[in-house]
Structure prediction request, 308 residues.
Amino acid sequence: MSAQPLAARKRDRRSDYAATWRAFRTAMRLGWQTEANWADPLLFFIYSVAKPVGAAAILVFMVDIISGGRADPGIRVFVVVGSALWSFVVAGIAGLAWSVLDDRERYRMLKYLYVSPNSLLVLLLGRGAARIGIGAFGALITLLIGALVLGVPFDVLRVDWPLALIAMALGLASILGLGLILAATVMQTRQDSWSYPEAVAGALFLLVGAVFPLLVLPAPIQVVGLLTPLTWWLEGIRHALFPGILSGVGGAGSVYADWTGRLTPSTAEIVLVLAASTAVVLGIGVAFFRWSERRAKEKGLFDQITGS
Prediction:
């Protein structure tokens, strides 16, 4: 008697999973078409890679000029990797918020997405995944240019692939968590929120050791950086791709060294802290987004056009 209800529940769960995956896949395709369908492939290629490659080249040339060409080669590697990986951050964190603003203010479709049978959270994550894919393309090109033109000594045989895969998976999850927090925030604000995503990304750029180690920052700011998962994501990817590279977390005189008595974190420590901080950020992001979604429904914010 109980076998039939159990089998029916299993079929329902499989059907729900399939519907969720279809919604996510459709949202990804929509996000890709929204981002890329406005231009021919060559123009879109230039648009996607010019900014990250240009940013990395400018920073490398600045370091060389300031140091008179005597900078440690490790600094060049540090800057190029951080600049390349930041494409993921801008695409993921800013992309989710921009998707909310696009659908509410420009296309005026957010209310229809909300009342559709699919979860708004799943749809936004699909849109964010498409933007992250575009960011990944820019990051790979930047690393390639760094190896071929900017003198980054990349050796594929020295890469710690398990650390690279684990750090990348956890890092992308943390980026989506931060993106959900920002998307939930702009859901409650007005059209002038278009400037929020880049402002937040710019602030994080200074806090997480993207292009310079945390030890150059004041101690309280270092503490904030150490609590941010992006800091440990960058540290993990750098040490996976270039073992022995300059640490963005530790170093003589850093808060990390004062707390732990060690100059650099171990691989296990990087993974553990990254996993813990990612879980916290992702949990907060989902909970905050659900709260923002409920409040937006109650206040009628989904169909409110805030632009003049």
Q: What stands out?
A: The radius of gyration is 21 Å. The longest helix spans residues 3-36. The chain has a mean pLDDT of 84. The chain has one domain: 26-299.
